[in-house]
């Protein structure tokens, strides 16, 4: 049987990984500044994480959500203390798209409205509702096209108000710092204005922290820089360091009732133990502070390279913008210098999404390689 061919693949087969390094079948060592698309938060195969999952699988890997699972409560408590999201309620699922799908569904139940407002260049995953919240999706199925999603430009509060005023929009969904769209971020004034408009027009504000959450930007959640209080926060990627887990944090103003949301696998014992280990390591190793410190070093080093026209992003969700397409440069970095980087919708942008354990010495390797590759 062949695989359904939807991914253009690099010709590399990773077989082993440790912290910020990935090794292929020939034992070639690659520096991972991509983190499997911002997924690897605490480093590959962290011993504490490996032990947590291994010990849990020996005891109980999964049982249904219809029976008590104290690991979910432990995870909720740890999340509250590290993220500062006091009073929020946690619903667990398995991926980013599923988190957003549940967030949108909940918004629709809560407001009794059906339309969604998203921002140009945003990306919220591939589901019947959430894929439509992606104006840059190349392929939109008839089902997706029927879903009514309005798109406005990031930063345009007037356009937001024009739509919310019609009283049909259940949710505004936003990445406070855009991922695949190219790391654009608006002003604090804009995010605060957006939160006020959502309150005024009874619209649920969903902060999509699937990529930017779990410390990646130097705050636990990227919206925290702007001092707003979203109604729902969606999370995934860095939450499990590779173990599939997603979730939404739900403001206390939105009430639960039996059967409102549900999932078979979400919040299973293995996923919870993986995510608990992630949070413990983030705390013990001060990884959020490391993200901030290493980010400053990255920006300083990048400023020494004349070909870099702009450094985008914050924390360890970063991009280097050039005035030429970077596909060839990325190929050189991976095949000649053995460094993984990421791409974006903008063909001139290299994205840097390393494990939060990355150190200055790794960036030194990267910038030496980049200078060489630019020659
Ligand atoms: N939201 C954002 C901001 C993302 O970057 C992604 C994935 O790249 C998703 C949602 C979808 O997550 P998943 O691929 O886990 O469904």
From TrEMBL:
Pfam families: Aminotran_3. Its cofactor is pyridoxal 5'-phosphate. The keyword Lyase does not apply. GO terms for molecular function: transaminase activity. Coiled coil: none annotated. InterPro entries: Aminotrans_3 (IPR005814), Aminotrans_3_PPA_site (IPR049704), Class-III_PLP-dep_AT (IPR050103), PyrdxlP-dep_Trfase (IPR015424), PyrdxlP-dep_Trfase_major (IPR015421), PyrdxlP-dep_Trfase_small (IPR015422). SUPFAM superfamilies: PLP-dependent transferases (SSF53383). Gene3D superfamilies: Aspartate Aminotransferase, domain 1, Type I PLP-dependent aspartate aminotransferase-like (Major domain). Keywords: Aminotransferase, Pyridoxal phosphate, Transferase. The keyword Transferase applies. Belongs to the class-III pyridoxal-phosphate-dependent aminotransferase family. This is Aminotransferase class III-fold pyridoxal phosphate-dependent enzyme. It comes from Kordia aestuariivivens.
């Amino acid at each position: 049987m062949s695989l359904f061919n939807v991914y253009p693949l690099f010709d590399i087969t990773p077989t082993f990984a440790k912290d910020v390094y990935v090794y292929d079948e020939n034992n070639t060592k690659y520096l991972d500044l991509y983190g499997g698309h911002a997924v690897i938060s605490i480093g590959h195969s962290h011993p504490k994480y490996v032990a947590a999952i291994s010990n849990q699988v020996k005891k109980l890997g999964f049982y249904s959500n219809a029976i008590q699972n104290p690991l979910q409560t432990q995870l909720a408590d740890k999340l509250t203390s590290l993220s500062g999201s006091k009073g929020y309620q946690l619903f667990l699922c398995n991926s980013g798209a599923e988190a957003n799908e549940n967030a949108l569904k909940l918004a629709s139940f809560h407001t009794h409205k059906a339309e969604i407002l998203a921002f140009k260049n945003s990306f919220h995953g591939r589901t019947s509702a959430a894929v439509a919240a992606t104006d840059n999706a190349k392929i939109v199925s008839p089902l997706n096209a029927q879903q009514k999603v309005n798109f406005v430009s990031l930063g345009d509060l007037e356009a937001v108000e024009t739509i919310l005023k019609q009283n049909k929009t259940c949710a505004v969904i936003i990445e406070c710092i855009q991922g695949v769209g190219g790391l654009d971020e608006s002003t604090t004034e804009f995010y605060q204005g957006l939160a006020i408009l959502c309150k005024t027009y009874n619209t649920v504000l969903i902060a999509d922290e699937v990529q930017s959450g779990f410390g990646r930007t130097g705050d636990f959640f990227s919206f925290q820089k702007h001092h707003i209080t979203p109604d729902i926060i969606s999370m995934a990627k860095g939450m499990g360091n590779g173990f599939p887990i997603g979730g939404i944090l739900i403001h206390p103003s939105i009430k639960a009732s039996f059967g409102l949301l549900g999932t078979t696998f979400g919040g299973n014992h293995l996923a919870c133990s993986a995510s608990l280990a992630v949070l413990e390591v983030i705390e013990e190793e001060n990884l959020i502070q490391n993200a901030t410190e290493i980010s400053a070093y990255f920006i300083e080093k990048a400023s020494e390279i004349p070909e870099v026209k702009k450094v985008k992003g914050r924390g360890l969700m970063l991009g280097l913008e050039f005035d030429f397409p970077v596909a060839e440069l990325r190929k050189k970095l991976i095949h000649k210098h053995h460094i993984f980087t990421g791409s974006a919708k903008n063909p001139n942008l290299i994205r840097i999404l390393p494990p939060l354990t990355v150190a200055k010495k790794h960036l030194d390797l990267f910038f030496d390689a980049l200078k060489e590759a630019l020659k």
